[in-house]
Design goal:
Layout lengths: L5 H70 L8 H33 L7 E3 L1 H19 L2 E5 L7 E3 L1 H17 L6 E8 L5 E7 L9 H4 L20 H11 L3 E7 L3 E8 L20 E3 L1
Parallel strand pairs: 2-4
Antiparallel strand pairs: 1-3, 2-8, 4-5, 5-7, 6-7
């Protein structure tokens, strides 16, 4: 019986040993990389949680302090008589702060529902032109107070879209509020509507405001994202409007895109898909059509 070559056997044994050592080294390296990635993700989560809590504290305490402060002044009215004009002013400030607080809480709840998959749309065929008309009309007082020209273009003879008119209104209200807030006096905000070749609709909200650097766009889309994170920032806001708008556009099967140039302005474009074949839906109350150009 022939014996095997000892040198070959030794070589095979060494190769197996080296292979095992290399495998262990690769496994240890992968483990280290996984641990490092997990540590970075944990640190990021902690940072985001801290920023979330800081923003929450600021955005909730500011209106609450206003409500408490002016409520105390009204409560002490018996001891320190106030003129009727001041009483009306304090009541108005309390109402505005309460509405702001309610908006922040509702936005937080809506985003939470969307992210948890519990958000449902009441979908039917929607006259998008009528929705935009209502949003522009509602934003007109804010634009007038800010000295910003608000214009609606090409909002007639548009195809219907499939969606929830209340949530579509919320999308464009948030976009208009943002655009007006970040546009200086004398600037303009334009809402332009175009029909797409596939039967869908594209709505562009363009402003001549302060704009953003490209790297700040992703920050603005994060919940509580603030490009200017300083507590002394000039423009207040919870940083939820744009995030919620994007979430709602995604739920409608659409797409939200942002282009911006610092010092020149921002364009936010919403693409909504065409109506898909569905069972007939009872038409809702018909609204008046818009003209080709409406300037508020």
């Amino acid at each position: 019986m022939l014996k095997g070559d000892p040198s070959k056997s030794k070589t095979t044994s060494l190769m197996q040993e080296y292979s095992a050592l290399i495998g262990d080294a690769v496994l240890r390296q992968r483990t280290r990389l996984a641990e490092r990635q997990a540590r970075l993700e944990a640190e990021l989560a902690d940072r985001l949680k801290s920023e979330f809590i800081a923003n929450m504290s600021h955005e909730l305490r500011t209106p609450l302090n206003t409500i408490l402060g002016f409520s105390k002044l009204l409560r002490d009215h018996e001891n320190h008589r106030l003129p009727d004009a001041e009483i009306a002013q304090y009541a108005s400030l309390i109402k505005e702060s309460a509405e702001h607080l309610l908006t922040v809480v509702n936005d937080i709840l809506d985003i939470s529902k969307v992210q948890s998959g519990l958000y449902a749309l009441d979908a039917f065929d929607v006259d998008i032109a009528a929705v935009l008309r209502d949003c522009v009309a509602a934003a007109a007082p804010q634009a007038a107070e800010a000295g910003v020209t608000l214009t609606l273009r090409n909002a007639s003879s548009l195809p219907q879209v499939r969606g929830d008119d209340t949530k579509l209104g919320q999308i464009f209200t948030n976009l208009l509020t943002n655009a007006i807030k970040f546009t200086p006096e004398g600037g303009s905000v334009t809402v332009e509507v175009l029909e797409q070749g596939n039967g869908g609709v594209m709505v562009a909200v363009r402003d001549t405001g302060i704009g953003m650097a490209p790297e700040h766009i992703d920050v603005a889309l994060e919940p509580f994202g603030q490009v200017d994170r300083a507590r002394t920032r000039r423009r207040e806001g919870a940083g939820l409007g744009l995030t919620l708008a994007k979430c709602l556009v995604d739920l409608h099967g659409g797409e939200l895109m942002i282009t911006s140039v610092q010092g020149k302005g921002t364009d936010v474009t919403v693409k909504l898909p065409p109506v898909h074949p569905v069972a007939p839906i009872e038409p809702r109350e018909k609204r008046e059509p818009l003209g080709n150009n409406a300037v508020i």
